């Protein structure tokens, strides 16, 4: 593309300026405002509002994505970056307007500003449902390479020309945030539409390729590029703050994964996280505009919940190892959860958008367990209150004692700590683990409804079920010395009454089931009778043989991990637990058994007159132990 002469810009300026108000008046407010916020959203200079949570947050990550290849077009990339519905709304609003515009009559011939026209044949791949604007812009670029770049270059020049620049400003009489953004977006779009209409009819392109959808495709992409470069109108920041304050309601709760760097993250109004000394309380330090919080992990992510209340919490929460309450003063409001190095915060501008004195209660748990993923959690509770002295409600973790220069407390390890390995294993998301005593491997398989003679590869079963998108049940088993371990990956047959009844016929059986939806079930059976099978919440009303196994297990504290505590109870009841080595042995053997499920249990039906559940499985017959692995060698055929 050749250099654009000043005379061409001057000649176009008058025609474009005359059309600009007409076009801007026909752009609907909502899509115009979404365009108008592009620069603010891309720079993160926004406040949470009703629309930002649904709409223009999605635009924040858009970039032109232009490359260096011969077919790359920043205009087309910018057009494709918009949500499809936004493009369609603008196309529908302006399609008839473009057809009415007459800007080509006095526009000079611009053919010389482009290279030689395309003279061959070409093909365009059109996706089903693709916008006519996107298709038309692609065709134009093929027919006349470089034409969209010429439109964008002329629009940038016209944006600073005296005749058109004055029409792009937002008047002081417009004060509402949406109205300012809409006026800004509509004006820049109108400039792009008028420029594209004038140019595309004067570069030697066949009229069929310059239908309104194609013109608007180039114009909308050009407008996106203009709006990413143009500063937000004067008064927009104040209007956005006023809107955020008007829409901010209490209480407010949000959660996310806060990034950590250098053993700390912060709740701050600013952007830089300072180095601070945590020797005072071992958890939180007040700095101008917010606080800095000390973590156990050096870097990574920690789970964080932030609550903003209209008054102090009614009581101090339990289940946290460190709780410290401090005051800080907000200069403007809208503090965000930040990290020392640059990065986008999911907990952005979450505190009230107005200045004043605030109280913050920081809760922390898991800072000593840095070798366990997702063990560290924080809860930040904020409310407006006069400045007051620091209050420490809990100080029990070892890290806090070290930071305060105090001797570390002796903290006995909780019983479920022995099963933390499960979280990082193949059972971490969903499984049922069943332990049976008084029965052999074959007995347990029959109790589950499996045929001991029908061995299959665990991997093959899993791949087939994945391919069929099936949840058919299967089980893997191992003799663990005095008991049989049965493992179901994502299955749950070991938690059902018929299986537990049959498996415990000559001893005990206990199982723990959990899935990705945090549904759990803990079950115990002895001598063919199910003693307890419940979703464990709080104190369990358990019969004497089971009650002793639940000592010290607080199922109300879900942070301790219900599946892990359930496995402790299973081990105590049966006298045998599952280890990582047991699981590795099962997976190395790669032997699984398909289960014929108890259909009445899975698919209830009306009771039969005799009360039967269905045909009973044969009485289990013990098999002699076999060498060669958890199940012994495969049967000969």
Largest sheet: 7 strands, antiparallel
Q: Please state roughly what percent of the residues sit in beta strands, choosing from under 5%, 5-15%, 15-25%, 25-35%, 35-45% or over 45%.
A: 15-25%
Total DSSP E strands:
17
- Overall mean pLDDT score? 87
Low-confidence spans: pLDDT under 50, at least 5 residues? 52-70, 612-637
Order of strands side by side in the largest beta sheet? 16-15-14-11-13-12-17
Which class do the helix and strand fractions yield? Answer: alpha+beta
Shape: flat
Radius of gyration: 34 Å
H/I helix tally: 20
Distance between the termini: 79 Å
What is the helical fraction, as a range of percent?
25-40%
What is the gist of this entry?
The chain is an alpha+beta fold and 637 residues long. The protein is built from 20 helices and 17 strands. The strands form 3 sheets. The protein has a 7-stranded antiparallel sheet, with helices on both faces. Strands 1-5-9-8-6-10 form a 6-stranded mixed sheet, with no helix packed on it.
What's the arrangement of secondary structure elements?
Layout: H1 6-25, H2 29-36, H3 38-42, H4 52-56, H5 74-80, H6 84-100, H7 132-143, H8 147-159, H9 162-168, H10 177-200, H11 212-229, H12 236-247, E1 252-261, E2 264-268, E3 284-287, E4 290-294, E5 299-308, E6 322-330, E7 336-338, E8 356-365, E9 377-384, E10 391-395, H13 398-403, E11 431-436, H14 441-448, H15 458-468, E12 474-479, E13 484-489, H16 497-503, E14 508-514, E15 520-526, E16 529-534, H17 544-547, H18 562-574, H19 580-589, E17 593-594, H20 599-602
Parallel strand pairs: 5-9
Antiparallel strand pairs: 1-5, 2-4, 2-7, 3-4, 6-8, 6-10, 8-9, 11-13, 11-14, 12-13, 12-17, 14-15, 15-16
Helix pairs in contact: 1-10, 2-10, 5-11, 6-11, 7-11, 8-10, 8-11, 10-11, 10-12, 14-16
